[in-house]
Write a structure and sequence with these properties.
This is Tagaturonate reductase. Keywords: NAD, Oxidoreductase. By secondary structure, this protein is of the alpha/beta class. The chain has two domains: about 5-270, Rossmann fold; about 275-455, N-(1-d-carboxylethyl)-l-norvaline Dehydrogenase, domain 2, CATH 1.10.1040. It has helices spanning about 5-10, 25-30, 30-40, 60-65, 100-110, 140-155, 175-190, 195-205, 220-230, 255-260, 275-300, 305-310, 310-330, 335-350, 360-365, 365-385, 390-410, 410-415, 415-420, 425-440, 440-455; strands at about 15-20, 45-50, 70-75, 80-90, 90-95, 115-120, 165-170, 205, 210, 240, 245-250, 270. The strands form three sheets. The protein has a six-stranded parallel beta sheet with strand order 5-2-1-6-7-8, with helices on both faces. The longest helix is centred in the middle third of the chain and has 24 residues, at about 275-300.
């Protein structure tokens, strides 16, 4: 069986238009996926030069496969099993920053390359005062990007229309703003010139972005074998992704929409002046419901999210906490109920995905900080707006405390004393649920709550 290569598909890369920092599965499963779709529909016509920045490993697999890979999309959509396969040919080449930095600077001088995409993890967007953008190569990602922008500035004599659209996808708040400020600070520290700094500020667009797609990575050995048998080729870069995906890009500048023409190929790429709505939907409904459900799921004996969602009592809890209690709090911040409900339905599909093996124990990492950031504002909004106890949230909070008791002891409730002081009714409900969880099976407690809420309705 032949290794995947362009001779098999008789296809050559499009002209290079995108410079991408990172070879990870999130980039290959989301931005590169959207660009591939746009190329196939004639809406972009550009390929991606990928920079491999880490010292470990080489670019051999990409070279051997002519930079092709297969994306296997598996999951649920409206409760229906979905399995799709997309051969991605949008990457033209993968260049090692360590061994071929001059090739990356050559890309900076290409007038057709107008977009930069990155995913270097959250620790990648940091200001390293010791990093020098004039070295070959610079150490940090911001150092490398500063060097690329400086090379472009010099090549085109600071032309206004030769700035770049920069799309960091790292999971930090206001990632575009943070990256821009680091680039400016680096340029100032190394005295790269006022003209260059003004060009960065005025002619380049650092867009805040939000990405949302679960991309677990490689297929299992059995899935890989089955896929190769069906497709007729070996693919050592094959990855899997869930059906749901979203890429929200914050900008109101017409040039951003013009350059990012690939966005027109899929409504799940959203270019908008404000992405806060998408942050709230993800944080409160996806992450928040995970956090409310996590302790209860572990106490009930479930190992994975899909296992818990296969139980009708537990899955009803998750649906109810989203639809009855979290969504009403989102209306308070101007999010449309229909849009929030649609997102919640997607979350149910994602949690129930039979091809994902998301462990509850993994979700419980940094549990207290997650509960505080994701759910405390939601609890506060609900109680202040409706002046009543959100019962599903109270039970989820009790599940968190009961689960954490093994490591934190009974003192954990004291940590929340100041936060919960204004919400006496909520605290009392949590204490009552803790008592029940100590004396009754978890699913019985959840089932009783479901029945009580049905009777109220």
């Amino acid at each position: 069986m032949n290794l995947l290569n362009r001779q098999l598909i008789k296809e050559r890369p499009y002209p290079e238009k995108v410079l991408q920092f990172g070879t990870g599965v999130l980039l290959r499963g989301l931005p590169d996926y959207f660009i591939e779709k746009a190329n196939k529909t004639g809406l972009f016509g550009g390929s991606i030069v990928v920079v491999k920045s880490t010292a470990s490993g080489g670019t051999d697999k990409f070279e051997l496969q002519d930079n092709l890979y297969t994306l296997h999309i598996k999951g649920l959509e409206k409760g229906v099993d979905v399995q799709d396969v997309l051969l991605v040919s949008a990457i033209s080449r993968v260049v090692s920053a360590a061994s071929d930095w001059t090739a990356i600077l050559d890309v900076a001088r290409n007038p057709e390359v107008e977009t930069v995409i990155s995913n270097t993890t959250e620790v990648g967007i940091v200001f390293d005062e010791q990093d020098d953008p004039l070295t070959s190569p610079p150490v940090s990602f911001p150092g490398k990007l500063t060097a690329v922008l400086l090379e472009r500035f010099r090549a085109f004599s600071g032309a206004k229309d030769k700035g770049m659209i920069i799309l960091p996808t790292e999971l930090i708040d206001k990632n575009g703003d943070v990256l821009r400020d680091i680039i400016i600070a680096m340029a100032e520290r190394h005295q790269l010139g006022a003209d260059f700094i003004n060009w960065i500020k005025r002619c380049n667009h650092f867009c805040n972005t939000l990405v949302d797609r679960i991309v677990p990575g490689s297929l299992s050995a059995s899935e890989q074998e089955q896929a190769e048998s069906q497709l007729g080729y070996k693919d050592e870069l094959a990855i899997m992704a869930e059906p749901f995906c979203l890429w929200a890009i914050e900008s109101s500048h017409p040039r951003v929409s013009e350059v990012l023409s690939f966005a027109r190929a899929d409504k799940r790429v959203v270019i908008t002046p404000d992405i806060q709505k998408f942050k709230e939907l993800k944080l409160r409904l996806l992450n928040g419901s995970h956090t409310f459900a996590c302790g209860l799921a572990i106490l009930a004996g479930f190992d994975t999210v899909k296992e818990a969602m296969a139980d009708p009592v537990f899955s009803k809890y998750v649906k109810q906490v989203m639809h009855k209690e979290i969504i009403p709090t989102l209306l308070e911040v101007g999010i449309d109920k229909g849009e929030a409900s649609e997102f919640a339905d997607h979350v149910i599909d994602r949690f129930g995905n039979p091809y994902l093996h998301h462990q509850w124990q993994s979700i419980s990492t940094n549990y207290t900080s997650k509960m505080r950031m994701r759910n405390l504002p939601t609890i506060a909004r609900y109680v202040q707006r409706y002046n009543e106890v959100p019962a599903y949230m109270a039970l989820g909070f009790a599940g968190y405390l009961q689960f954490m008791k093994a490591t934190e002891g009974n003192e954990l409730f004291a940590v929340w004393e100041a936060d919960l002081l204004p919400y006496t009714g909520f605290r009392n409900a949590v204490e009552d649920y803790i008592t029940r969880l100590e004396t009754q099976p978890v699913l019985d407690v959840i089932n009783q709550l479901n029945r009580n809420e049905e009777a109220r309705d």
